[in-house]
Amino acid sequence: MNKPRKRPPKRIAVIDPERCFGAFACSICQAACPVEDCIVEEPDVYGRMVCAVRIDKCIGCGLCVTLGNPTAPQPRDFGCPPDYDAIDMQDYTDVVEVLEAELGDAAQTAAAEQPA
User: Fold this and answer.
1) Is the pLDDT of residue 115 over 90?
2) How many CB atoms sit inside 10 A of residue 73's CB?
3) Dihedral (C-alpha) 29, 48, 85, 55: value to the nearest 10 degrees?
């Protein structure tokens, strides 16, 4: 499935990079996700390749969410292993607000570092 979303979902998957075992070692979330290129590999702060959800692609199905996690919208037999517990569903608007604040802070820092 690789069609554009008609509207943002109410909730989206969020992966904690500190708990993700690594994109090349696991990738169960990528296999569970029905949306092409929604869960991608990217380096974390330590340079490890971990999985990350693209908020512009996530449809909020919750198929990747950690097994047994109460934020999952439905029970299923496949998803992030419970011993990793790396994926939660969170409110879409909350995630967007956090990302916008981080981008704003990064832009202010970059502007302050520019020579006058």
Assistant:
1) no
2) 13
3) -50
